[in-house]
Amino acid sequence: MALQHAKESKILELLKKLDDNDRRTQAIDLSGSTVFREKSVKLCASLADALQRNSRLTALNLSNCSIGDGSAKQLANVLRDNATIFDLNLSYNKLGRPGLTAIGSALATNVGLKSISLANHRVDSSVAQCFVQMFYTNVTLLTLTWDVNLPAFNLKLTEMINRNNEINRCVHVGLRCPH
Question: Is the confidence at residue 5, as pLDDT, over 90?
């Protein structure tokens, strides 16, 4: 359900459906939402609150929603224990080191997320190191999309993603995985 030009009442209605764990609300696309960009702190807090009780949402696109570090930390708290969101897009927001490291740390215990997009954020070595550490315990994340040019970390991150994809392949075909 794409909501780029939706009014605030429509977005609040959708958040209520999430909070009620509506079975028909499995994917939400708020990318570029004018209302969400204007009220990202308030709406992200409501979203995070609703997601605490939701077990049906599998895909969430929040790209270009003016989400900052504080809101990213709220989402990270949800991601830590969430097992139902498989695809998350946080590209083109206002995430800095605090928000990105909060997400990386939360993913260390996440067992559901398969794909995350963090494109167009400044990734420095401390953020990259946080994600490397996350991969030591996370074996479910299969795709990480971001803009990083840190050769020392690129190789390690690629190795970890390849490992997770191999584990996923083994699980799906019923093989014992060597990892």
Answer: no
For 46-84, the pLDDT digits (tens) are: 999 999 999 999 999 999 999 999 999 999 999 999 999
* Euclidean distance between CA atoms 42 and 24, whole angstroms: 24
Q: Measured between alpha carbons, how far is 99 from 156 in angstroms, rounded to an integer?
A: 22
Whether the Cβ atoms of residue 71 and residue 47 lie closer than 8 Å to each other: no
pLDDT at position 148: 84
Tell me which residue of 103, 31, 34 sits closest to 73, measured CA to CA: 103
CB environment 75-92: b (16+ within 10 A), e (fewer): bbebbeebeebbbbbbbb
Q: Which residues contact 88 (CB under 8 A, 6 or more apart)?
A: 59, 60, 61, 62, 79, 113, 115, 116, 117
Better pLDDT: 84 or 3: 84
Q: Dig out the tokens for 130 from the structure.
A: 């946080």
pLDDT, residue 152, reads 84
Q: At what angle do helices 97-107 and 69-79 cross, to 10 degrees?
A: 0
Residue 98 CA to residue 80 CA, distance in Å, equals 16
The closest of 71, 56, 58, 45 to 20, measured between CA atoms, is 56
